[in-house]
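QA checklist item 7 of 12: single-chain prediction sanity check.
[x] sequence parsed
[x] length recorded as 566
[x] structure emitted
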Amino acid sequence: MVRLVDIQVVRADTLSADSLGNRSVEQPIYGSRGDIVDANGVVLAGTVMRYNITLSPRNAVEFTRKTAAGDQTVTVAQAAAEVGAITGQTGDAILAIISSSLAADPASDYAIVTKAVDVSVFRAVDALEIPWIYFEKKPGRVYPDGAVAGNLVGFTSSEGEAQAGLELGQDSCLASTNGTETYEKGADGVRLPQSTVTEKAAVDGGDVVTTIDSDLEWFVQQALAKQAQATGAAWGTVVVQEVKTGKLVAVADYPSVDPNNVNGTANPDDRGSRAFTASFEPGSTFKALTAASVLDAGKATVGTQVVAPYRYLPGNGANINDSSGHADLHLTLTGVLIESSNTGMSKFGELLTDKQRYDYMTKFGLGTETEAGFPAEDTGILHPYDEWDPQTKYATMFGQGLTTTALQVSSIYQTIANKGVRMPVQLVAGCRQADGTMTNVPAAAGTQVVSASAAHDTSDMLEMVYQKAWLSKVWNIPGYRVATKTGTAQMPDGHGGYTHGYLVSVSGFAPADDPEYVVSVSLADPVKLNTSAAPAPIFQEVMSQVLKKYRAVPSGAPAPALPGTW
């Protein structure tokens, strides 16, 4: 009687707590990571339920399985072989998991057989009804469109941790908060039915809504990959940007990466987006910025005349030359862009002070990251003007002596096309919460970089480039006025010099009479065709598709006829 009172009254609470602790098991409830979707709601990255298969080593004994033919005794070895046949493991491997766990702890109650299996594997193992096999639900990441926008979307680790791209950059929106639940088990380790209690509810992550059009992204990636492979390019990028909003409609990289199989991409540099992370000397596409700056400062007009020699030796000791030998050319500012003359552009650029040109460059967004918020984005290199040596002073007039990213070049052309107003570069429209509200919506206010008249005149000159430059037949888009410029720049060797390779590019916008879209193309070291003739077909194919897809109104009045020579 004394013993009974002691157990049921005196120590009742303590013994109940100890008993519960021996049979109660706590486990996490995983919240779902948010989706990454395109501008139309197409899922680029989503969450599906995966399962970890676990076992209780100390309870791993033979058991009786009821079958149609009667009771069947199943040994541990047989059960392990059955599980392994489904998971792709050997029975011996699973037995080794059991034995090593027991060797470390004879009372071991938990060991992982395999992680992150899909529902079909879960159901097949569950159907075996092995009493000491258990399952943990764990959400896994899936990328339904594979490599489409893969370089932008990024990927997570096997543990669900953000590693790259938007997965990493937007992790604060996407990340979920795990909850906890407890259940009770019997002496044999089997979970007791209807004993689960939720202690803390899980909270799902928000959805990242991008500005990308996944259909167009697929098309652009195909066009880029086809020409990059045909020309033997090491890598390439294409940017498609809305003129009036700054939104990125497509950002394609070659080579591309499939986030479902990141390890299949051998070169780590191919797993990110070089459009954001790789800066380069832009070459002659940069001349549009210098021309717009000179026009805005009132130092020249589209018809201002210069004599452009093959080699120009200004008084400060710099040495400037054009890409090929020629007699003196009598060019207007328009003609300098058409002929892409370094010496001619140098004579216009020196009409501004170094500080004036530097200020224009920074207002165009050079030397800083864009507003897109992409992880590891390169700022490019723009040295302060008071650190320029004599050669850099002139080289920065025609796209050398500094570096830019593909996004920065696209932003330059967006600014010129948008009446001189630079819009923040947008890749993410916001974070959509569970109740449908949008947070983290980026600012949409623009900055007047050059006057509307200077931007308009620059656009007119770029139209003359489109019509009269040597690639006019290659990039022709019937029915539309187009403004464009090519670039060819030597690639640095990483040791202060240059390789024999070139980065070739084409940037422009259309319809030039009412600009809607910028397309900027870059190919690095296309060994089979190392001129701007390599990216020009990509520009023509992509811009044609963009204008058709978004039903851009064909141009009405013809482009103005500006003289290039005098």
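[x] summary fact logged: The first strand starts at residue 24 and ends at 29.
[ ] second reviewer sign-off
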